[in-house]
Specification:
Layout lengths: L2 H14 L14 H7 L3 E2 L2 E8 L6 E7 L7 E7 L13 H15 L5 E11 L7 E10 L2 E12 L2 E10 L8 H13 L2
Antiparallel strand pairs: 1-2, 2-3, 3-4, 4-8, 5-6, 6-7, 7-8
Length: 189
């Protein structure tokens, strides 16, 4: 066989014996790596301390707060179950369970707290839902408060986000803008 034809035959033979296509690379990331992506400032909230999760899960809790006398506070929790990689978004059973648990925690009557759910939405507002959110309001003692809780799967694990602030007009912060900024930061590699 001539050298040109041998090369063509070898290429055709190799083409028929290619390795099976590999699945797309996993988007899994350790909570500590995701926490490193979070900004120092997000929609007027300033980043505070990063701590281990209080429940003993392998994860991180990152605090945020607005400056000023009438402040809003927020926490971002990132955690992964060992050996489990969740599909990104709000649609999986695990993401739904994380959201339902977060809403139940926020609404659980604990004296002097009384809260109620005001409405639900997903983020981002266009495209596939990555976070499921609930707006909440009520009181801590005599102080009227409002807030937001969101959850979804990000980086193979769970993202939970809480925002709480006094109920004022205008509000001391934009909770939706904060949640959107956190989501955008985590989606940027």
């Amino acid at each position: 066989m001539r050298p040109g034809r041998a090369a063509i035959a070898a290429a055709l033979l190799l083409a028929g014996c290619q390795m099976p296509a590999q699945p797309p690379a996993s988007t899994a990331a350790a909570p500590v790596d995701l926490a490193a992506r979070l900004p120092e400032e997000a929609a007027g909230f300033l980043r505070g301390a990063t701590t281990s999760l209080p429940r003993g899960e392998a994860g991180r809790e990152i605090g945020y707060r607005t400056p000023g006398l009438i402040a809003a506070g927020a926490t971002v929790e990132l955690y992964r179950q060992p050996g489990v990689t969740l599909p990104e978004g709000a649609g999986s059973a695990d993401a739904e369970a994380a959201f339902n648990e977060l809403v139940q925690e926020a609404l659980r009557p604990v004296p002097p707290r009384r809260m109620r759910e005001e409405g639900r939405f997903t983020l981002p507002s266009r495209g596939p839902a990555l976070l499921r959110c609930a707006e909440i309001s009520g009181s801590y003692g005599r102080e009227r408060v409002q807030g937001l809780v969101c959850a979804g799967a990000m980086g193979g694990g769970v993202l939970r986000l809480r925002v709480a602030m006094p109920r004022r007009e205008p509000p001391p912060a934009d909770a939706r803008a904060f949640a959107s900024a956190i989501l955008a930061a985590l989606r940027t590699p």
